[in-house]
Amino acid sequence: MSNLYWLTDEQMARLRPFFPKSHGKPRVDDRRVLSGIIFMNRNGLRWSDAPKEYGPAKTLYNRWKRWGDMGVFARMMEGLASEATVPKMVMIDATYLKAHRTASSLGLKKGGAVA
Fold first, then answer.
1. Of 53, 3, 47, which is closest to residue 29 (Cα–Cα)?
2. Which top-level group of life is the source organism from (predicted)?
3. pTM
4. Beta bridge partners of 108
């Protein structure tokens, strides 16, 4: 697959302070796994469809789930946003956000009012 996404050295250096400490067995390659997680989320793919270059799909999912539950990704976003040059301005590119098919069952009435 030629359109794979890989984090750069600079991006990894900015993200590394937010990584949790590794206890016991060393983690698999952070760059490979995080690049894979970003690729999967950007493209809206199922974990089982992960390109082999990112390693086992189970590893990608497990890291995504574990770090998500620990708040690691939220801290990354907050930390990166706090580095913004314009105070109190946070911009997020929502180009790749997709609505899940169950979003229609969130209790919204016609016209967008919450039930």
1. 53
2. Bacteria
3. 0.69
4. 114
Residue 36 is encoded by which pair of tokens?
Answer: 């894979």
Asked whether the beta carbons of 51 and 1 are under 8 A apart, the reply is yes
Is 47 contained in some domain?
yes
The residue type found at 46 is R
Amino acid at 9: D
- pLDDT (tens, 9 = 90+) of the chain, 115 residues, equals 468 999 999 999 999 999 998 888 888 899 999 999 999 999 999 999 999 999 999 999 999 999 999 999 999 988 888 776 655 555 666 555 555 555 555 555 555 555 5
Residue 71 lies in a domain: yes
Phi then psi for 114, rounded to 5 degrees?
Answer: -80, 135
Q: How many structural domains compose the chain?
A: 1
HSE-up of 11 (CA within 13 Å, CB side)? 11
User: Residue type for 99, please?
Assistant: A
57, part of any domain: yes
How big is the chain, counted in residues? 115
